[in-house]
Design goal:
CATH superfamily of the largest domain: Histidine kinase-like ATPase, C-terminal domain
Number of helices: 11
CATH architecture of the largest domain: 2-Layer Sandwich
Structural class: alpha+beta
GO molecular function: kinase activity
Protein name: histidine kinase
Strand content: 15-25%
Mean pLDDT: 79
Pfam family, one: HATPase_c
Transmembrane segments: 7-26, 32-51
Organism: Flagellimonas algicola
């Protein structure tokens, strides 16, 4: 409504100026000098009034936007004016000002709400720009680093020089682990970065979490699993030795006295020899068990070189061909075909052979058993190799146990293969993970950065 009255007055003023201009022209043609002078004065007055009218409106709108930009919502335009268009314009500006003020208050409340959430978060949060200026850091981060206030990442050098180097060289979507040691305690920090764009400025959001307790829990859990398996294996070996030794002792000792040789019969001597043979076998098994443990601890550092993925997979395919059953299909695929890995070919080949053997054994008894060996890249640009089979799979209650040394569900084998394979991949700076849907698909995935 305000804009309508404004336009009507503007149109009226323009028409009036036009008519006056025509009268001025008519006076010049007819040489009506008195009318000419009067008309000239009139047209100057009308133009001045029009400019003043427009400037008053523009000035009000300019004041309005300046106040909004400066977050000054106290500006009020008078609504009791004689000119109707100005009255309606002032009312409209005051209404818009009230709405913007209400939205601004709501945004402030929401911002305070989010700020409080960030302050109470149990993980450290920091944002800094390309120049290293810290725009935000919550109390949890300052407590973790034992430093406050944080204004620039250079201050981190006073906490730990290595920590400053980590933040200085941080790249978007990067993950780091850092052990922070101070006079109070030792913290294992997990850091993750995410890029942000705010008001045309590139920022880096870094989340910092102390995972010391989680690592302690995982370490304790790993020890419990390992000790449980070790205890099981050792007890299975020692129990027969103890039982047979006790039986043999009874042959040669009665009521605490040694039995004379002439009192022994042939059956007791034969049983003694058999018992000693069993003790020897169990002792050898225990020695093999210990040797397997030593082999896992003494994995040599990888001797890395550039290896073509297609060549590596074809080599495994040739080695596995002799172990294929009549109903088993073994496939290899490398995409892209020119994919290359920086690895120790012998070590990774042994890992793939071990995983392929396990996969072939799992599909041996099923119809249309298929094992696929796939090399490629994931969404993060990491190079991967997957061993996929459609066998019975791994039950959910055992999937966390299969990488524990000496744990096995087979009737033969030491249970060292998977744990040794994972150790080899870890020495390459990668990871070995498993995903299994029983009777559908089981995937062992090797990831290399």
């Amino acid at each position: 409504m305000a804009s309508r009255n404004f336009y009507l007055q503007l149109i009226f003023s323009v028409i009036l100026i036009t008519l006056t201009a025509l009268l001025l022209a008519w006076s010049i043609v007819n040489r009506w000098y008195f009318t000419l002078g009067l008309t000239a004065i009139l047209i100057i007055a009308q133009v001045h009034a029009l400019i003043r009218f427009i400037n008053r409106t523009n000035r009000k709108i300019a004041y309005f936007f300046d106040a909004i930009r400066n977050e000054d919502f106290t500006l009020r335009f008078p609504e009791k004016v004689t000119i109707k268009s100005f009255k309606e314009l002032n009312q409209s500006l005051n209404r818009v000002n009230g709405l913007i003020q209400e939205v601004h208050l709501q945004l402030q409340i929401r911002e305070q709400y989010y700020q409080e959430i960030l302050k109470q978060a149990s993980i450290g949060i920091m944002t800094f720009n390309e120049n290293g200026h810290i725009l935000f850091s919550n109390p949890t981060l300052e407590k973790l680093l034992n430093y406050s206030p944080l204004n620039h990442i250079k201050q981190l050098a006073q906490v730990d020089e290595g920590l400053y180097e980590v933040f200085r060289s941080f790249k978007p979507f990067e993950r780091r682990l850092f052990q922070l040691t101070n006079e109070r305690e030792q913290n294992q920090l997990a850091l993750k970065s995410t890029p942000l764009e705010l008001d045309g400025q590139s920022l880096l959001l870094v989340v910092v979490q102390d995972i010391h307790e989680e690592l302690d829990e995982k370490e304790t859990e790993s020890w419990v699993r390992l000790i449980r398996v070790l205890t099981h294996e050792i007890m299975n070996t020692i129990t027969p030795i103890a039982s047979i030794s006790d039986s043999i002792i009874k042959y040669y000792s009665k009521q605490g006295k040694q039995v004379a040789l002439e009192d022994l019969d042939q059956t007791q001597i034969k049983n003694t020899l058999k018992g000693l043979e069993v003790i020897k076998e169990q002792g050898s098994s225990l020695m093999d068990f210990v040797q397997s443990y030593r082999s896992m601890l003494n994995v040599p550092e990888p001797n890395k070189a550039i290896v073509k993925g297609s060549k590596l997979l074809e080599k495994i395919h040739v080695l596995m061909s002799s172990k294929l059953g009549q109903e088993t299909d073994f496939q290899v695929s490398c995409d892209p075909v020119n994919l290359e890995f920086f690895i120790d070919e012998k070590q990774i080949s042994q890992v793939l052979i071990n995983l392929s053997k396990n996969a072939l054994q799992s599909v041996k008894e099923i119809e249309n058993g298929t094992v696929r060996l796939l090399a490629g890249e994931d969404g993060d640009g990491n190079k991967i190799i997957q061993v996929v089979d459609n066998g019975p799979g791994i039950p959910a209650d055992l999937i966390d146990e299969i990488f524990v040394p000496f744990f096995t569900t087979k009737t033969e084998g030491t249970g060292i293969g998977l744990s040794l394979s994972r150790r080899v991949v870890q020495l390459h700076g990668g990871s070995l993970k498993v995903h299994s849907i029983p009777h559908q698909e089981t995937v062992f995935k090797l990831t290399f950065a």
